[in-house]
Amino acid sequence: MPTRYQVQEGDNISVEPLGQPLTFHFSQRTAKNRFLKAAMAEGLATWSPTELEERGIPTPELVELYRRWGEDAQGWGVILTGNVAIDFEHMSGAGMTVITPESPFSGRRFEAFQAMAAAGKANGSLMVAQVVHPGRQAPETLTKEPFSASAVPLAPKMGHTFAMPHAASLAEIQRVITGYGHAAEYLERAGFDGIELHGAHGYLIAQFLARRTNQRTDAYGGSLENRMRLLLEIAQEVRRRTSPAFIVGAKINSVEFQDGGITPDEARDMCALLRAEDVALDFVELSGGTYEKIGQSWADDVKESTRRREAFFFEFAQTVVPAFGVEPADRTTKVYLTGGLRTAPAMVRALDVVDGVGLGKPAAAEPGLAAALLDGSLSGAIRPVDQIAHDDGLSLIAACVQFRQITQGYEPFDLSDPTATATFLSDIGALFQRRAKDTDQKESGVCNFSGPQTKHISAA
């Protein structure tokens, strides 16, 4: 049996609040519970190093992955997809899905997105696609001429190097806005319930929000309102091109509020702008981390107060949530907290501050975790061995290997099992050796798990 994060003795809190529906004010759509399957890059879409139109089409494997997350009627209230790019030549990784402004509302790509949406929402979950432009945070192997808010370089990180970005022109900014709007309309027509604008983790919107990466002197730089202009104009364009029932959310980042990014006062002002009627965000997901500062692993220097709460960004949430409304009933923009929550009691306590909780890597290890927490059969997520738990980059790769297992009809390997973990580490070691020789970038995604596997038995 897997080793799990343990509930503290006497911490017998009812999980009933996690099972309560959540209605989004602007779209008037209702999530069946307070769980959000957080976005994680799957690396399972089609890829070609030379044929741009062959990039980013959802595969049957990707459809199967979302079928598994959506197979339980008591499962995830909201299922967020991994990154959907809006430009073939500006991608954060090979194997991510792509919808460009030129993508038609028909054909192989469109039908594949339709299948993906139908699979995830088959049993009542809301399917929301996370859409992103990487800006300067696109590997140099994929993007030779990146742009950002300003010409601020990004140092090599997580095995990638990044080309020097140039400051985005007004035409490039307009194409980004158009790209998000087209993607939203495309996704709604394909059957998705909503879109999340990725304004976190160091991607383009975050690059405009943070002072250290935005040194512009035009309408998109300087004051907080100017630095927010790109995000606000994207949200308005998305609303213009979709129906009132389409969910629109955004992911924002605690790290961007530190180290020369955004001050606490600006954070509160920013949240007040995001709940405005002309922006009409149904939800905001609070998270953290960039390529420069990941910030989402249980490293030794994590504060003890953070360990007790289990949420990496709890203090950040306490700072900004009141700007959306002190009482839940006052919040026209609902708030999710993602990052570090591992036991049911901690998730319930988080609802004292936010409206819902997001789970990422635990959902890769156990696609049915939300339902199991709600029915009481489980009280905590699997606790990985320390080597994985303390290394966020390694744990993300492990999640991608687990995705592959899921698409092949297996249960994910047990991250708490030292033997299974050793097999995983051997597998990715061989993968890295192959990648070093793959100068033509023909290979995308990760490797298969070579150890013993257990077939998945689908829910009734």
Automatic annotation (TrEMBL):
Protein name per UniProt: NADH oxidase
Molecular function GO terms recorded: FMN binding; oxidoreductase activity
Domain NADH:flavin oxidoreductase/NADH oxidase N-terminal: from-to ranges: 20-283
Gene3D superfamilies in the record: Aldolase class I
PANTHER family for this protein: BINDING OXIDOREDUCTASE, PUTATIVE (AFU_ORTHOLOGUE AFUA_2G08260)-RELATED, NADH:FLAVIN OXIDOREDUCTASE_NADH OXIDASE N-TERMINAL DOMAIN-CONTAINING PROTEIN
Keywords carried by this UniProt record: Flavoprotein, FMN, Oxidoreductase
Organism: Grosmannia clavigera (strain kw1407 / UAMH 11150)
Entry similarity comment: Belongs to the NADH:flavin oxidoreductase/NADH oxidase family.
